[in-house]
Structure of FAD/NAD(P)-binding domain-containing protein:
Amino acid sequence: MRRMDRPRVAIIGAGPIGLEAGLAARTLDWPTTIYEAGEIAQHLQHWGHVKLFTPFSWNRSALGMRLLDTLGLARELPDANAHITGHDYRTRYLLPIAQSDRLANCIRTGTRILHVARKGWLKDDARDPKRAFAPFRLLVQQPDQTQCIEEADVVLDCSGVYSHANWLGDGGIPAIGETAVRPQIVYGLEDILGASRKRFAGKSILVVGSGYSAAHSVCSLARVAEDNPATWIIWLARNGRSQPLPRIPQDPLKERDRLAAQANGWATRGNGNVEYHNQTGIESILSHGPDKGFRVETNCDGETSIWEVEQIIANIGYRGDDGISRELHVGPPAPPSPMTDEPGFFRLGIKSYGRDSRFLLKQGYDQIKAVFAQIAGRPVLEMNSVKG
Ligand SMILES: Cc1cc2nc3c(=O)[nH]c(=O)nc-3n(C[C@H](O)[C@H](O)[C@H](O)COP(=O)(O)OP(=O)(O)OC[C@H]3O[C@@H](n4cnc5c(N)ncnc54)[C@H](O)[C@@H]3O)c2cc1C
């Protein structure tokens, strides 16, 4: 029987939204476990060199600030208007929250949730109100790789999308040969100006994508090319726009707009080390061996081109791992809603936006408020971001 007066809460993922949800559950004194496959805010650690578009005041919550204030740590936080890196956000805001007495004992790092189901019910079973009273069963992979089943009354899936990059081929499936060479392709945001500089300096690099991640990669590579003119960047996009990134009119996030303008400038000015090709799809990828480069076949309006490049960066977006909830009544994401058809199961954070890349942390904080109000049957938390 599910206990809803003081439900056992299982949170999948200790990213910013999983941690904030954990803080909310612990504030209500509900038994809480946060399962984290890697380290705290593992995905942020990967792209920690990137500066956040949003000022710090958008990325913190009232609950988090109250806790850090109680711990005497609020004074050490960044200025409300500061645009800090992901690394700074993790070490100065998220880690102190995760390591606080309120959360530390609830978090299990190195622990992956493989599947979630409803005890005694299959997905195909006729819809029956009794289903909602059965607890959830979680198949848990522990740090020593052994598996066990644990139960919960409420499951909050905050597992993000970053570790599931989209494929390069037309229609979203792999290009010919892509599955075999996937480990040699960069699918995320490398620290091109820092730790990974040597991998790209003086090389020919194919960058695929037309979002802010691709813009970030191209701008960083263009800066590398200023010091090392042998660096050559071929930027490919599927869309037909003459400028890779659409500018948001009067974008309230100035840093985001600055990146779009800068990347579009590199793509169109024609005198740098960047060449831009739109309406181009990837047909096939052949690796010449680890660190020996690739032969890439593309198609533009029926015309085939062959590119010989040394590196490939695929910044074509991410998708959530929906396999976790395969046996539940959970449909595709419907942003900005965290609700699903499975009572007690919620999808929050960037995963709730699916392939829509417009998610911002402050929307995640609003989702948490809505979810906890639904579970408790009344508003229970005041978690608007703080002012000042
Ligand atoms: C480069 C970049 C810049 C961004 N800039 C901004 C910005 O300026 N402002 C803003 O508001 N938003 C920004 N975002 C969007 C968003 O806020 C971040 O992606 C944020 O990290 C999302 O938080 P999350 O908690 O939903 O997911 P994540 O941070 O992705 O956390 C998910 C966690 O779940 C864990 N996990 C995954 N699967 C499992 C499993 N099966 N079992 C257990 N644990 C699991 C992962 O290891 C990870 O720690 C940016 C995103 C990117 C990629």
